[in-house]
Each structure stands twice: as structure tokens, then as C-alpha cells.
From TrEMBL:
Signal peptide: none annotated. It comes from Bacteroides helcogenes (strain ATCC 35417 / DSM 20613 / JCM 6297 / CCUG 15421 / P 36-108). This is histidine kinase. Its EC number is 2.7.13.3. One of its GO terms (molecular function) is protein histidine kinase activity. Residues 483-527 form a coiled coil. Keywords: ATP-binding, Coiled coil, Kinase, Nucleotide-binding, Transferase. It catalyses: ATP + protein L-histidine = ADP + protein N-phospho-L-histidine. Residues 536-767 form the Histidine kinase domain.
């Protein structure tokens, strides 16, 4: 015997109710239904009375409406798959926003009684009224026991009903309801929530962010409260032209993202005149930072998605668009204490901008033109921008690398679709998207786009800051005042306010720099702890290293006394002598690695001494050769005109530099198809300078850095990612290297232009 399943009316009721966390979400769901029905206009009306039992909510649209057949087959079917199968609307071909078929329970979330009047254009003058008492769900045993009322009505009935409700008083009434009206009118009574002014203001804010600005021409959204018709009216989505930066990104698949950057932060006429020297700086001589690039205002670039990112995950992410604005909310760093303008900012109204950011700030997701809650709502920092900025809090002009946007400085829109982003399914509560690997990658791609803006602004502001410091050497003057004060008697100390201003300003600047250095040092401490741990166990490790190689021969000699080696000839398995040979090979690897590691932390390497570069590089390469050979990597050294050439410095500094180069090459070869892996090192004497070139034939510079390669020397900059584009490298290697080289007079580091692989050059002044 086969028996059917049955669902209780109360269970169906609860399933529907739990899909709407609050009343605002329920109204949004009904507005989406109007959009799906090809409506041009949707009006939300709150008729709030002193007696709550008399209060009502209305949602009115001029969409396609519903026939009695549609009401019976689709509206009355819980969990219908109509929108899942018919993804686009019939007339305007809009992508339908709903898919679960439980949106009608939004009516129940709002109140216990609901009435719907619906007309279709094909049935002139004829419509239908549907009504339900949601309390019946609590009384009925099974779902089939609950019934709604459905009756045929005329256009006259519609007009009378609207007049009874007071809808004819709305300023938009004539535009909404005409003789050939088609659409749907929902009336919810016996409301579950108190719709006071605070609640209505919250609803208005929610509706303002519900649709993107470009949609308001084809879908007008209105909100009224019956007792104060002047309170609102048409809901205007977020628009703002007074921004500092606008970034527009589009991903169409593959491993490229197209980006447009609009700069509006700096006054162009001042850049062309008073600040023109900034374009003489090296970083500002190349696109997109030249003066002609600023004159265009908009620059474009293509960024690459790391090859390590899983291709299947990328396909699951699908096409998307991302537009965001950067808006700083203060001009406090515009001028110094002397009134000198540090940055040629365009002026703006700070209070107006702050108010707009409070209302529309954050990064929001829109699926098929409707916002997906709660992203960007009420300070929801779902991209972790605050956490990123806390780890690297420096300003854009303080140093190159590490500048991060604050979450209260961004307003953005991400556009996705049911059709192209199928992996992004709603949570059952309709409050957000289900977290999965594709969504994690999606977030990281958005952060990669944001980092393009951060680098752009960082480059511009840092070079303006360096220009300012060169023209206003305040630190030098501050030192003079301080030393003068220290050399003077207390009663002769300067009381001039000007001196105090200089000292205060310089102190503030130094304090900021020290905070930045502390962030860098915290990373360096973590890296250094590994070396400290190794140094702590140096004696024990040396003892282990000494015993590694002899132990295999000792064990072999013991075995030979009892088991002749000939007995196991030709045997691959269960051969103790073959296992000994394998163990010996592994021990040799471990021995060489320990030898290299322990030599790298010798105390003598921390002494400031004369270093014979030829001898140093020869020994350095020999220490790496066994490890590299096992990885099938060949390394060679070419020395030219370096006899007796000495460099004054720390051997540990050179270790840090060249170890970084070697390990980077090893990593590059891991994903390279090159069969003959090779590292070439050359050192030569060029008019009193030691020129050391380091070149490998690996995969070369990551594609994302091809347009701006010097970025790799910035702090926390890394192309080492996992399959979800999470950065897993420290991004400190080349930053540390550049910092070491900067300590040596007239030393420099630069990338070498090579056809294949990667090349880097270091130059030291020699004795």
C-alpha cells in the first residue's frame, strides 16, 4: 500500500514566516513581485491610525496582473517553481528575482488579513479579488483544509474600493490607475508591527537602497504615509557626484578583470601649476600617473587573476560588475601648521558627505537589480575592510604599500544575476547568500579590485607627500629648535608659538611614522622568531647533523654480518639494503639543509666587516647547490673584474637578500613547465660599483604585476595565493630586501627586463 505525505497547515505557515526576518524584508519581497510582473510603478502606502486595528499597508503596482487561472495554479501553490522555470518576465524580459515560491507569505508576516485585487490587460474591465485570513493556518490540521476566497470583480468595484481605502488621495493616483488599469493591489490589515515614524524612516532608507540608480527610469518606486502625503513620494536611489574616486570593474569570465578608474580628488589646475614637479618623480612618469592621464580623468587597466586560482571555482563565480566610490570625510591633512597646502584637494562639504555616507555607505550586492540583504547594511563589513585597515593603518601618503581603505569611506554596488551566478544561492532565511568556496573566491576578487584603487591613490598621495617634504623640510627645522632648547638654560628657552607649532607638527608626523614602523616590526618579529628558535637549539641540531651520515654505514655493516647483500639482489621491495640507500639519500638532504640553516645564524654574520663578494657568492651558491640539484635546478656564477673587491657590511644582510632571491626562484619553478631549470648569478665591477644580477628561467613576474612591476617591493604585497585567491604569502620578502639595501650608501635594487623568467639587479658601492 502506498500512502501520501501530508503537511500540517501550521508547518507550512511557519516555513513561510521564517523566510522573512522583519517587516521591511517582507515589503521588499512584495516590491520584487511587482518588478517581476513588469510593473513601471510600485507604490507602498502606510495608513497608520491611532487604533492599530484600523491601520493598513498597501502595495500597488501597474504590472501584468493575474488571471483567476494564474491565481489558482501559481499564487495558491506554495513553493511553485514557475519563476525557477520561467526566469524572465513575459513582456520586458526582466530576470525574475524570486525562485522559491513562498513570497506570498510576506503578506502574513505583515498582518493577519490580506486582500488582493488584480487585473490583466487582456481582460478589459474584469478582475479578481482574493482574500485570506492567515489565522486559519493555526486552526486547520492539514494544509488542504485552509481555503482562500476568490471572486470576479469589475473596474467599478476597483474604483470604489480604492476610494474606500483613500488611495485616490495619492498624488500619483491618476498616473497609477486609469480606465484600462492592469496590475495588482495588495491590502494588509490587522498589522503585526507598529509603523511609527522611526519604522517608516527605516523602511524609506531600505527602499532607497533597494534598487540601483539606473533602474529608477524603468521602475519607479514610491512610499507614502496617508496622514502626511508630503512626507515622501518617489524613492530616490543612492546617487552622488561629489566623490574622490569612482572605480568600475567588470568580470566577463576567464582570468581578466576590466577596470576603469575616475579620479576626482585633486584639483587639476593646481596639479598642472603649483604641483607640476610631482610628475618629475620616477613613479609619476609612467602611465597611468602622468599629467596627461590626470587630464583624461579616467584611466583603464586590465588586472589578471592568479593562475593558482581554481578554474572551476572561477566559472562558478560567473560574471559580475562592481562599482564603488571612495569618499574621504575630512580635509584635516590638507594643510600643515604653517598653512602650506600638502595635497591639492578639491573642496567638498564635509557634513553633507558624512551624512550621505551614513545613509548609503558600505558595499551592497544587487541580484537582478534588487539588493540582497544584509550586505552593507547598518555597518555590515562583509568584505572585512575594517580588519584589513587595522592590520595596516597607515595613510595613503605615508609610505608606499600597505594603504587600505576604511569601511566608512566606501559606497559600492556589486551586480550579480540568477542566470550567471547560480552558485550564489540565498540562505533559507533570505538574509544573505550561502557561504561556499565560490562565494569566498568572489569576495577575494572584490578585494583585489579594491586594492587597484588603493595602489593608485597610494602612489599619487605618497609622491605628493615626498614633494611636500622636499620643499618643506620641517624635520630639519624641528631638530634645530630642539637642540637649541637643550643647549640653552631653562630661562632662555624660546617661548615663540611658531617654534611650538613646528615641534608639534613634526612630533605628530614622527608618531604616525612610528606607528607604521611598529606594524612592520610586528611582522618582522614573527619572521625572526623562527631564527631565534633555531639559534636556541644550535648545539642539539649540530649533534644531530654530525650523526646523520655515519649512521647508515654503521647499520649497513651490522646487517652484512647476518644478511649477505647478494641475497637481496634484484628485489625492489622488502630489501633492507635498498631501504638503507633511501634513508641515506634523505639524511643527506637533511644534513645539507641543517648545514645551510646553522651557518646562516652564525654570530660572525652579524659583524660589520669587509666582505669579499667573489668569495661570499661562491660559498653562498655552493651551500645552495645540493638542495637545488635535488630539485633539478642548475645554478651558476659568473665573476667579472672582482679580484680583491670588498664590500663593507653585514654578511647576514647579504644572506637575507640572496636567500630571498633563491627561494622566490624555487617557488617560481614549482609551477613552471621549463624542463631545464636554471638560475644564473653574475657579479661585476662597474666603475666602483658591484653589480649583481640574479636571473632565472621560471614563470616570471606574476601577470598581475606586469603593468606596475615595482609594486612587488611594497610591504604585504604577494602573488602567493590559494585556489580561492586568499593571499597566503607574507608579502614581506622583497620589502625586507629593499629595506636592507636602502641602508647602504648609493645602493639600489631594480627589476631586470628579461624575455623569459625573472631578473633582478642589486648594486652596491664598493671600497
Amino acid at each position: 500500500m502506498k500512502i501520501p505525505f501530508a503537511i500540517s497547515a501550521r508547518t507550512a505557515h511557519l516555513i513561510g514566516m521564517e523566510n522573512f526576518a522583519n517587516a521591511e524584508g517582507a515589503i521588499v519581497e512584495l516590491v520584487k513581485n511587482a518588478y517581476d510582473a513588469d510593473a513601471d510603478i510600485c507604490v507602498v502606502v502606510a495608513d497608520v491610525r491611532e487604533n492599530k486595528a484600523e491601520s493598513k499597508l498597501f502595495i500597488i503596482d501597474n504590472g501584468s496582473g493575474m488571471t483567476d487561472e494564474i491565481i489558482i495554479k501559481h499564487w495558491m501553490t506554495i513553493g511553485t517553481d514557475d519563476k525557477l522555470l520561467n526566469t524572465r518576465s513575459s513582456n520586458k524580459k526582466r530576470v525574475k528575482s524570486g525562485a522559491k515560491g513562498i513570497g506570498r507569505f510576506a503578506l502574513n508576516r505583515l498582518g493577519t488579513s490580506a486582500e488582493m485585487l488584480s487585473f490583466v490587460s487582456s481582460e478589459f474591465g474584469k478582475g479578481y479579488v482574493w482574500s485570506v485570513d492567515w489565522k486559519k493556518f493555526d486552526k486547520a490540521r492539514v494544509l488542504s483544509d485552509v481555503e482562500a476566497n476568490l471572486e470576479e470583480i469589475t473596474a467599478d468595484y476597483l474604483v470604489d474600493r480604492l476610494n474606500e481605502y483613500g488611495i485616490d488621495k495619492l498624488p500619483i493616483y491618476d498616473k497609477l490607475v486609469s480606465e484600462n488599469f492592469h496590475g495588482t493591489i495588495l491590502c494588509i490589515s490587522h498589522l503585526n508591527d507598529d509603523w511609527n515614524d522611526d519604522a517608516l524612516n527605516g523602511l524609506l532608507k531600505n527602499l532607497e537602497m533597494l534598487i540601483p540608480a539606473e533602474l529608477q527610469t524603468s521602475f519607479g518606486l514610491y512610499l507614502y504615509k496617508m496622514h502626511d502625503l508630503q512626507w515622501s513620494g518617489k524613492v530616490n536611489p543612492m546617487e552622488y557626484e561629489d566623490y574622490d574616486y569612482k572605480i568600475s570593474a567588470q568580470y566577463e569570465g576567464g582570468r581578466e578583470i576590466q577596470i576603469k578608474i575616475e579620479r576626482n580628488e585633486l584639483n587639476l589646475s593646481k596639479l598642472e601649476t603649483l604641483y607640476s614637479k610631482v610628475f618629475l618623480r620616477d613613479a609619476m612618469k609612467a602611465a597611468p600617473f602622468r599629467l596627461e592621464d590626470f587630464r583624461k580623468r579616467e584611466v583603464s587597466q586590465t588586472i589578471q587573476i592568479n593562475k593558482k586560482v581554481d578554474a572551476d571555482l572561477l566559472e562558478q563565480v560567473g560574471k559580475f560588475g562592481f562599482t564603488f566610490f571612495f569618499l574621504k570625510n575630512t580635509l584635516k591633512d590638507d594643510r600643515d601648521k604653517d598653512g602650506n597646502q600638502k595635497y591639492p584637494y578639491n573642496l567638498f562639504d564635509e557634513s553633507a558627505r558624512t551624512h550621505w555616507l551614513d545613509r548609503f555607505g558600505g558595499v551592497r550586492i544587487y541580484r537582478d537589480e534588487f539588493r540582497v540583504r544584509p550586505y552593507g547594511e547598518n555597518g555590515d563589513d562583509w568584505l572585512g575592510l575594517g580588519r584589513r585597515q587595522a592590520k595596516s593603518p597607515g595613510g595613503a601618503g605615508q609610505k608606499m604599500g600597505g594603504y587600505r581603505i576604511r569601511p566608512n569611506q566606501i559606497a559600492g554596488i556589486v551586480k550579480i544575476s540568477r542566470l550567471t551566478n547560480a552558485a550564489f544561492e540565498d540562505k533559507s532565511s533570505r538574509e544573505g547568500i550561502q557561504e561556499n568556496e565560490a562565494f569566498a573566491l568572489f569576495k577575494n576578487l572584490l578585494l583585489q579590485i579594491i586594492s587597484v584603487f588603493e595602489l593608485d591613490r597610494n602612489t599619487v598621495m605618497y609622491n605628493l607627500s615626498k614633494l611636500y617634504k622636499g620643499e618643506h623640510p620641517q624635520t630639519t627645522r624641528a631638530k634645530e629648535i630642539a637642540y637649541k632648547a637643550l643647549d640653552s638654560k631653562a630661562e632662555n628657552l624660546s617661548k615663540e608659538a611658531e617654534d611650538l607649532k613646528v615641534l608639534a607638527a613634526d612630533y605628530k608626523s614622527l608618531e604616525t611614522e612610528l606607528n607604521d614602523k611598529e606594524v612592520e616590526l610586528s611582522m618582522l618579529r614573527g619572521l625572526a622568531s623562527m631564527g631565534i628558535s633555531s639559534a636556541t637549539f644550535t648545539h642539539e641540531l649540530r649533534s644531530v647533523m654530525i650523526r646523520l651520515l655515519p649512521r647508515n654505514e654503521l647499520l649497513k655493516n651490522i646487517l652484512l654480518q647476518y644478511l649477505p647483500e647478494k641475497q637481496f639482489e634484484g628485489m625492489r621491495f622488502d630489501n633492507p639494503y635498498q631501504e638503507l640507500r633511501n634513508m641515506k639519500e634523505e639524511d643527506e638532504r637533511l644534513y645539507n639543509w641543517l648545514l645551510y640553516s646553522l651557518n646562516s645564524i652564525r654570530r660572525s654574520k652579524r659583524d660589520w666587516v669587509d666582505i669579499d663578494l667573489s668569495n661570499y657568492l661562491t660559498l653562498f651558491i655552493e651551500s645552495w647547490r645540493p638542495i637545488l640539484l635535488r630539485k633539478l635546478i642548475h645554478i651558476d656564477l659568473q665573476i667579472t673584474n672582482m679580484d680583491g673587491i670588498l664590500l663593507k657590511g653585514f654578511e647576514m644582510d647579504l644572506d637575507s637578500i640572496f636567500n630571498n632571491f633563491v627561494t622566490n626562484s624555487i617557488s617560481a619553478f614549482l609551477t613552471s613547465n621549463e624542463k631545464k631549470k636554471k638560475i644564473s648569478v653574475s657579479v661585476s665591477n662597474d666603475h666602483g660599483y658591484a653589480v649583481i644580477d640574479f636571473v632565472d628561467n621560471g614563470i616570471g613576474l606574476s601577470q598581475e604585476y606586469r603593468n606596475n612591476p615595482d609594486v612587488i617591493f611594497n610591504a604585504f604585497e604577494t602573488s602567493t595565493v590559494d585556489n580561492q585567491n586568499n593571499k597566503i604569502g607574507t608579502g614581506m620578502g622583497l620589502f625586507i630586501v629593499k629595506g636592507i639595501i636602502s641602508k647602504y650608501p648609493d645602493a639600489m635594487i631594480a627589476l631586470l627586463p628579461v624575455e623569459t623568467g625573472f631578473g633582478i639587479r642589486t648594486i652596491f658601492k664598493i671600497k
